[in-house]
Fold this protein.
Amino acid sequence: MTRLAQCLLVLPLILAACDDEETVAAPEPIRAIKHAILDQRAGQQERRIAGVVAASVSSTVAFETNGQVIELLRKAGDQVAEGDLIARLDPEPLQLQAAQSEAELARANAAAEDARRKFEQQARLRQEGFATQTAFDSAEAALKDAEGAVAASTSVLDRSKRNLAKADLRAPFAGVIVRREVEQFEEVTGGQVIYAMQTNDRGKIDAALPETLINSVSRGDGVEVSFPPLGDVRVPGTVDEIAPLTGDANAYPIEIALLQAPPGLRAGMSAELTFRFDSDATGEAFLVPLTAVHPKVGQQEAAMFVYQPDTKTVAERAVTIVNVAQNSLEVIGNLNEGDVIATAGVSFLYDGMRVDLFDPETLQ
């Protein structure tokens, strides 16, 4: 057989071998996944709400009687001690009222003394049989009326003296004047606000508790309070009051008592309250990175992928997201402590997919 004939016989075999190589599928590349070990359980849940620093006592101050303001001794921002004189009414009209009341009491006493003498006279005559029962009864009634008039005049005098004493308005507690509501020489009525005052201790935070937290917070619970205007300094506080009815936006007004006030704190400053409390997830749910979970649109359930070392594959596990904690998720599902989970590219993984564990040292 010639060489040419031998080549023609071998050529079909070579072409058939080439066709067989083209039909063999290329092996799927094995993806290297970033991973982490499940070893951190969810702790207490945290909720933050905004608040405002307020004084523990805030009140308005007013005269108890009518009159003309002749002195205003304090202005907004002034510090006062308890009992300090802060404003005065013109005392002359009140002095005249007191003098008139004294005169009316003197007349009432004189009338009562005369009625008493007449009653005693009628009582003797009645005993001796020289006075009628009607005359005796009239004298007795006149005496009671006169004694009633004395009591009424005494009350009027006491009130006049009290009004005169109240012409001097004094600070009911130590604190600071927040604002002044009237001007000097203005005519005011009893109860009209003269000053607004508050204490200096700045001992509470006013806030509004969302309705979603109302059943998780109780009086006496501890709260962490931070103050952004003071460099986010943090101090402890306790829940002092919870209103039984909602205010604006279906939120319940609450007061937080500060256990200590940081230097530089002023009423009106903003504050942030951090509440921590146990939930169904505390100690049960795992804390995982956001990138480890493949969410399902419109559902609370999601998927995670757990590495199977025996087969070098990942297994899809259904999980439920129970809470978001800063940059992590709290999830519950068919997971065990020590499981190796994929933490990146989970949207490209599927159940049973072969993978390798990414080793950053191989890039060095």
Remarks:
- The chain has three helices and 23 strands.
